[in-house]
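Lab meeting, item 3. Inverse folding demo.
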């Protein structure tokens, strides 16, 4: 199981209200007790923070707000001593506009050689005052910003698929490729066990810069040239001792093209966003699981199961709504949400995701049952999505609120002495969601996760291996792993009987005698061999 740490919001070690490496080191015992196998850290590099660290100014150092490179090396070593591996986030599609290469490209004017490392192009129209294309940014608005020449006249334009402060690299240039290969070696040399690749499908662009059309190939997503980049990265990873993993953030609707990134000489794994965005509906969840396993089988790659991350609405909130899906095109805020229902479903989803074949990812706070914070005052919001969308897209701040550790009032032990308020405000109602409040409470979300992860680590039937669907009542998902493990998830609106079993291993909620209530999952130990075809969900 891989645990995602968003450093700004995990734990604050120096009392300035912002999470840091010292805070992470002080809370490693929590992750060890949880039973995590690896920690994935969101970017911690020097950055102006125009996009919360995904605008990187230096890929070989640590931003002072988080600590020092020496502290990061100590964190890697301390985690290894606890049996926990380290995955760092690399952002190869773009950098910060204060990166030395981009600053040199601007300062040198149209003839600067550094411009070849980015996408500088002349504008359209008689005066060049129109952008080279009408591509739309992932953050809303244009993907091109016009420069000003050293003499003050309007210049050409540069490409940024995200914010203007995040210019895109030109991956057709060998210097860019060599630079990132060296960056990979830099972190692998420091004992890092894996690289998570941000926006992994977006590095290569169609150099002719065609307009994006609904019926044609996307000129800046999933361009075939991207695969040679990852083949070179795989050769680097394979040259190191032990197991070094490359994990891609790949948002693609086409399962076959998604699987291309997982061929034996490319990435080891990629995030399963179909599962993350899937509705809490039995037929849709089963179809998603089947499609995921089918897509991974031809390339013999492990599937991944993700419920939340630093970019999406927390699933306790999503599952408490009438529409339980997630998509960036339809993010909502202020929608009626039943948090009790969402929490009950989130508990069941934990047992579902942790018992499927492959790797499970847990986003920080998921194990505490945290919900999306939707009432952050407008003036405190920091996500560029909020302003660039004209304050229509609520942004991602609501899932990035600092974690509650101890106490009855904010900042809930996030900072050592509480002298500085956290960088985003925490809800007062989180007093029952702190690590301390939940530790030892057999009914808490935290203890559910601890118990489930312990069983997952101890049972050889879980993790890799096959999944066999079992006959089940309408609205119920049931499957077995190996010969002795069974999972049942009741997504119907009526209680259903427990199937024959030797022992109840774990339940996501209280059972009514031998009945499994709605929105409840159970793990069972059984040696009974099921027969007959699986019933439809």
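The presenter then showed the designed sequence:
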């Amino acid at each position: 199981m891989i645990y995602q740490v968003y450093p700004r919001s995990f734990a604050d070690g120096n009392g300035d209200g912002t999470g840091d490496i010292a805070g992470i080191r002080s809370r490693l015992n929590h992750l060890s007790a949880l039973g995590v196998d690896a920690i994935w850290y969101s970017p911690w590099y020097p950055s102006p923070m125009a996009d919360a660290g995904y605008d990187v100014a230096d890929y070989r150092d640590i931003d002072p707000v988080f600590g020092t490179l020496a502290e990061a090396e100590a964190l890697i070593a301390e985690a290894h001593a606890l049996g926990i591996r380290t995955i760092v986030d690399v952002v190869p599609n773009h950098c910060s506009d204060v990166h030395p290469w981009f600053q040199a490209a601007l300062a040198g004017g149209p003839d600067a050689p550094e411009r070849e490392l980015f996408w500088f192009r002349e504008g359209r129209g008689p005066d060049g005052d129109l952008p080279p294309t009408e591509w739309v940014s992932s953050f809303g608005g244009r993907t091109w910003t016009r420069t000003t020449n050293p003499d003050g006249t309007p210049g050409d334009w540069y490409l940024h698929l995200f914010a203007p402060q995040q210019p895109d690299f030109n991956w057709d240039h060998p210097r860019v490729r060599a630079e990132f290969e060296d960056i990979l070696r830099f972190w692998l040399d420091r004992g890092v066990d894996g690289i998570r690749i941000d926006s992994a499908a977006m590095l290569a662009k169609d150099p002719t810069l065609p307009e994006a059309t609904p019926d044609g190939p996307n000129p800046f997503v999933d361009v075939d040239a991207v695969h040679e980049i990852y083949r070179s990265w795989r050769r680097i990873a394979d040259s190191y001792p032990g197991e070094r993993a490359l994990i891609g953030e790949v948002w693609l609707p086409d399962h076959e093209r998604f699987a291309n990134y997982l061929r034996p000489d490319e990435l080891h794994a990629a995030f399963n966003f179909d599962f993350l965005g899937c509705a809490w509906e039995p037929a849709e969840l089963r179809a998603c699981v089947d499609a995921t396993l089918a897509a991974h089988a031809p390339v013999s790659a492990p599937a991944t199961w993700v419920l939340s991350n630093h970019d999406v609405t927390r699933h306790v909130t999503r599952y408490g709504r009438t529409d339980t899906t997630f998509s960036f095109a339809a993010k909502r805020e202020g929608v009626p949400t039943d948090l009790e229902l969402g929490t009950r479903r989130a508990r069941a989803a934990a047992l579902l995701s942790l018992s499927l074949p492959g790797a499970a990812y847990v986003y920080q706070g998921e194990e505490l049952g945290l919900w999306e914070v939707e009432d952050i005052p407008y003036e405190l919001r920091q996500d560029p999505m909020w302003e660039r969308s004209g304050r229509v897209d609520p942004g991602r701040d609501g899932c990035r609120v600092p974690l509650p550790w101890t106490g009855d009032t904010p900042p809930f032990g996030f900072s050592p002495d509480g002298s500085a308020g956290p960088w985003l405000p925490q809800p007062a109602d989180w007093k029952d969601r702190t690590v301390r409040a939940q530790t030892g409470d057999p009914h808490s979300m935290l203890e559910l996760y601890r118990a489930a992860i312990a069983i997952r680590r101890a049972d050889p039937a879980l993790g890799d291996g096959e999944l066999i669907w079992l006959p089940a009542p309408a609205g119920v998902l049931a499957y077995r792993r190996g010969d002795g493990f069974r999972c049942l998830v009741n997504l119907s609106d009526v209680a259903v009987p427990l199937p024959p079993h030797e022992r109840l291993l774990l339940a996501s909620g209280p059972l009514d005698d031998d009945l499994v209530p709605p929105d409840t999952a159970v793990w069972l130990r059984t040696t009974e061999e099921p027969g007959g075809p699986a019933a439809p969900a």
